[in-house]
Amino acid sequence: MDKDKGLSSQTDGAELLQPPASVLEIARRLIRAGHESWFVGGAVRDALLGHPNLDWDLATAATPPQVQRLFRRTVPVGIEFGTVGVLDDAGVMHEVTTFRRDVRTDGRHAVVEFGASLEEDLARRDFTINAIAYGPDSRELRDPFRGRGDLEHRLVRAVGVAADRMREDRLRALRAIRFAARFQFAIEAETWSAILESAPHLGRLSMERVQQEIEKTMVQVDRPGSAFRMWRDSGALAVLAPPLASLSDVALATLDRLPRARGTAQSQRTANRMTALFLELTPAVARATLRELRFSNDRMRWIGDFVERWHTVSPAMRDALLADTPPSDATVRRWVAAIGRTRVGAFLRVAEARFGAELDEETRAVFSRAMRSLYRRAWRVALRDPVETGDLALDGGDLMKAGIKAGPQLGAALRSLLDWVLEDPARNTHDQLLARARELAADQSHA
Ligand code: ATP
Ligand code: MG
User: Fold this and answer.
1) Which pLDDT score, from 0 to 100, does residue 8 have?
2) 41 lines ligand 1 (CB under 6 A)
3) What is the structure's pLDDT at 7?
4) Residue 3's pLDDT is what?
């Protein structure tokens, strides 16, 4: 372990490390109480890269009970693994984890043991870029695996023997891909071989952990297409989500054209990206795959319904956007009705990304103008025009008075009236609809 070469001197990069005062205070209190404590993991890595990261995790020689005694407000977030959440003055939680070493691993879980040194703790971490420690008082960096060198060379490299590390925990294969895509790093050759070797074994992972990796990839990575390309090319998708095994390059490019969410108010963006993964499947297979991956029922339903509408609406929409004449108002209304008022924004965003990914540069410019115009028109329709049976200027009671029988005929009559109104929204008056309903009732009794 040569710590004095290039970027591995003990203080190189320390000036970039500026933990917020609230977490520094937590670290100092631990140190004052005699417990060796270091910042570790994602925040150290991100700070050295010049990226902000709010999660300044601490590793400490203190045991969980010692940490709990030292701070007034703590949360036992993962006591059995040594992690105590400590709340700072503002009530923000920071993770403080006791130094640990792995005693046993089975590709799914690790059994850990406390009483380890910082070096042992760093050695059980996944990648060199995640195994750098920063001591707040000495302003010293401990980087036994030369993570700073790999940051500089933009490499994701396993700590130690890659194949062994992946065998201990197969999730690391997916994590390597996520970090590589997130920072646009290459994956070091031996680490990539270990990922390829891991792919057939990924089925042993709990699907919840896999689902979280997908979610994190969508949230954290600017261009998730490169991540899912690696999921595909490594064989991970074939094992974890077989219907996605031959995900097209267009689907990957679509992902890259959809922005990621920044902050919780934009979680719709994550849903849009997720949807882009499933457009090439039938709705039934998309739903089954999402269920298999343990996505929430809400997510599964939302994406399943979206895919269903995608298959009915998008072919005609694509043709219309590439044609010389814009679609008629009635056509736009029918699309909005088929998509559903509340989904129009998401649908058009995904459509724009997907069609954009399919086209060459030149066609894309023409198409973008057509898309913007459609976006405005569809939005206006969604806000203003009747596009659901609930928007009709009469209800089921009126229909029964007009002579329509209760039961399935009622629903059919409402849909037929909506269809008539979509042709021309000026028809949506009580009197006109009632007259039309009487005609329908007469047809029904003839039938
Ligand atoms: P992010 O910004 O995505 O949170 P992170 O590096 O902080 O990135 P976490 O999942 O929060 O990632 O984990 C914190 C640290 O714990 C990592 O930096 C790494 O050192 C270690 N770690 C996490 N998961 C594993 C794993 N499966 N195997 C080994 N070490 C891990
Ligand atoms: Mg983290």
Assistant:
1) 55
2) yes
3) 54
4) 41
User: Which amino acid residue places its CA nearest to atom 30 of ligand 1?
Assistant: 125
- 227, burial (CB in 10 Å: exposed 0-12, middle 13-18, buried 19+): buried
Structural domain includes residue 121: yes
Residue 149 · residue 7 · CB < 8 Å:
yes
User: Are residues 10 and 132 located together in one domain of the fold?
Assistant: yes
Please state whether beta strands 155-156 and 186-187 pair in parallel, antiparallel, or not at all (unpaired): parallel
From atom 17 of ligand 1, which residue's Cα is the shortest distance away?
Answer: 41
> Residue of the nearest CA to atom 8 in ligand 1?
42
- 129: tokens are 């870029």
Q: Specify whether 340 is located in the same domain as 226.
A: no
Residues 345 and 400 in one domain: no
pLDDT lower than 50: segments of the chain: 1-6
Domain boundaries, position 173? 154-261
Neighbours of 132 (CB within 10 A): 28
What pTM was computed for the model? 0.92
46, 81, 125: which to mutate for ligand 1, most atoms within 8 A of CB? 125
The answer to whether position 216 is within a domain reads: yes
Q: Is 127 left (phi over 0), alpha (psi -120 to 50) or beta?
A: beta
- Please, what sign has the CA dihedral across residues 238, 239, 244, 247? negative
Decide if 84 is inside a domain.
Answer: yes
